[in-house]
Amino acid sequence: MYYDELPIWGLIGRVENREETDDPKDYKYFLYKHIHFDILYNKDRVIEITARTDPHSVLDLTEDKEVNAEFTYTAKWKQTDIPSLLISSSIKFVSVINKLMTKS
Fold this sequence. Notes:
This protein is of the alpha+beta class. It has one domain (2-102). The chain is built from 1 helix and 8 strands; from the N terminus they run E-E-E-E-E-E-E-E-H. The protein has one helix at residues 84-102; strands at residues 2-3, 6-7, 13-17, 27-32, 34-42, 45-53, 58-60, 72-79. A hairpin with a 2-residue loop joins strand 1 (2-3) and strand 2 (6-7). Pfam families: EMP70.
């Protein structure tokens, strides 16, 4: 996900295997229903966004059936004095490195 050309990484769910076997029937699949965003901004520029999920707000998708889900989010805005150029330059640098590493 991106916001104003800033990447946002986060998990959308989890897989559990309590039996520690490779049999797919022993796996449980969960989807997170709530995401919390921490948004760091300097004046009128968003410079960083982190996403966290609530491990207690999950939907069990283990059974192969249709389910209805209500998704929610919260956002906390935090002002900073960090210049946006420093953050965006480092993000672009990491993006370039990631592209080079994955093209092998």
